[in-house]
Amino acid sequence: MTTRTIRPATVADAPAVGDVLAEAFDDYPWIRWAFGEERRRERLMALYRWQAGLAGAELQGTWVAEEDGQVVGAACWSRPDSAPLSAATAELLAREVPRLLGDRAAALEEAEAAGVRLRPKEPHWFLGCVGTHPQWRGRGIASALVTDGLRVLDTQSMAAVLETSDVANVRLYERLGFAVRVEWDPPGGAPHVWIMERPAQGT
Fold this sequence. Notes:
Layout: E1 4-8, H1 14-25, H2 29-35, H3 40-58, E2 62-67, E3 70-78, H4 87-101, H5 105-116, E4 124-132, H6 141-154, E5 159-164, H7 167-175, E6 179-184, E7 193-198
Parallel strand pairs: 4-5
Antiparallel strand pairs: 1-2, 2-3, 3-4, 5-7, 6-7
């Protein structure tokens, strides 16, 4: 019988988080627009290792799902109560992220900044990504990962916000209590995006 564990990520999980999320998002519309074809999987793996794996663990915003001890999924939240990153990690991200994004950095920054303006002004948790390795999809792992994050933010009576550029995900998140706040077409030819919000719940 398979044993599943959902737990907060540690910095030691960073390589596994990078591997799983790169596999999960390689064919995702936003990622294909943002990264193009050149060495996409390799660049994604490094980006998720540093941002969701290392920084996410430091900021206590990343959860991993394990099946029999193997990391098969991960979710990364930005949370307003996080302490600052360590100087070493902040320096690493400042150096490596622009290199990984290459000539797409400016377009991505413009699209993401425009999206931020459509989110709630009040403090909230933002679900940056949740992904399951393709071989493990269809087992409720993504829902379980998101649900664990929701349990924590509910103790703070915080709203939860996310963006998706896959209409199939809208139905998944609606089952978890989210509703579409706005849908729009970001600048630069980026894919259509649904911004969804789950209101703060009582403690």
